[in-house]
Amino acid sequence: MGANALNRSLRPKAVIMVLLMMLMVVPLTPVSTAADTNPDNLQAQHIAAVFDPVSETTTITWQNIDTYNGNVPYYHSAIYTVLRHTEPITQSNIDTVQVVDSVAACQANVYVQYAWCLSSAGGNGGQHPGHSVSYLVDAGTNSTFYYAVTIGWDSDGDNVGSPGWEVDVTYSELDPDVSSLTIGAEETTSSIETPLYFQASYSLADSETTLTWINYHSPLLPNTEPALENTSILIWRSTTEISRSNGGQIYDQLTPIANLSSDVESYVHTVPPNTNEEAFYAITYFIPNKTESGEDFVDLRFLSNNALTEPVLEDNRPPSHVTVFSVGTTSESDGTGETELTWFGV
């Protein structure tokens, strides 16, 4: 099957993946109207975590408190920190957890008045819709993980990110199922099965870019499992970097420049004349009928250095012609002189 036909045949799947990846950046903040728990120190409320097996992303959501107290003015100087662990997060293990992300508790330039930082679900004049953080789970994960959210702020009241802002007050109350989950998210992701050690070099003399790699099933690697039947290699070229964050979009918008046998470990791309641009290359396998339901599989996460992080400059465009050229001469009384050449447009 040619590269164009292959891309067309899988386009519906690619569209679905793009939509799912777009959902990853949309704040998914289910609003709870339940009463706050232990809110005096602005503890995160109503934490939840949901794992999406298609995008391999866990989305953690929570809300601000919904009733005013004396610490609410610190919202503008506060940040929430999202934590992850293999056990429910408590005071006894908080020093061993993984930090996922930190986000401003309430943006001062959006929610100008402190009271607006209260949760919009509370009916007390609050306008804040809640928080959402998406975490891309590592490849080959198969376990249950627990999340928690803590808070800290600048006791001087400086806004987050302003000069002099520094967190010097922290609270980790970790009330169960308020700011710390007692039921974890089951996270299962696919293992990596892509070409490795992907490299690219451009030859000006030949106007060619040579790509090399080692196949995942190469006898040089400690992997005894052969590639599935009819597995092929797809090579992609883009003027923007290809990564996990845009893999679905790349797959939907680009056509592979090559569709090769799975045992090939190099490819030469001839650069068209009059080219002058930086190119990013990536390589993946196309594995027919890989899943249990018989669906084809292409790993678009690009997690094994199978996509360039630095571009290749492909420049075979000749220099511009001289547009203006003039010759001027001067002579001296002693018989010497000068000739001056002037040109523009190079």
Outline the structure in words.
This protein is mainly beta. Helices cover 8% and strands 34% of the residues. The chain folds into 2 domains: 3-13 and 192-315, Immunoglobulins (Immunoglobulin-like); 31-188, Sandwich (Immunoglobulin-like). It has 3 helices and 17 strands. Strands 3, 4, 6, 7 and 8 form a 5-stranded antiparallel beta sheet that branches. A 4-stranded antiparallel beta sheet has the order 12-11-14-15, with no helix packed on it. It has a 3-stranded antiparallel beta sheet with strand order 1-2-5, with no helix packed on it. The longest helix is centred in the first third of the chain and has 14 residues, at 11-24. It is flat and about 95 Å long. The two termini are 46 Å apart. The model is unreliable at 1-29 (pLDDT under 50).
Give the C-level CATH assignment of the largest domain.
Answer: Mainly Beta
The helical percent reads under 10%
% residues in beta strands: 25-35%
Count of helical segments?
A: 3
Total count of domains: 2
Q: Note the quaternary state here.
A: single chain
The global form is flat
CATH topology-level fold name of the largest domain: Immunoglobulin-like
Number of strands: 17
Biggest sheet record: 5 strands, antiparallel
Mean pLDDT: 87
Distance between the termini: 46 Å
Query: CATH homologous superfamily of the largest domain?
Result: Immunoglobulins
Structural class: mainly beta
**Radius of gyration of CA atoms, rounded to a whole number:** 29 Å
Question: How do the SSEs run, as a string of H and E?
Answer: HHEEEEEEEEEEEHEEEEEE
| CATH second-level architecture of the largest domain | Sandwich
The residue ranges in which pLDDT falls below 50 over 5 or more consecutive positions are 1-29
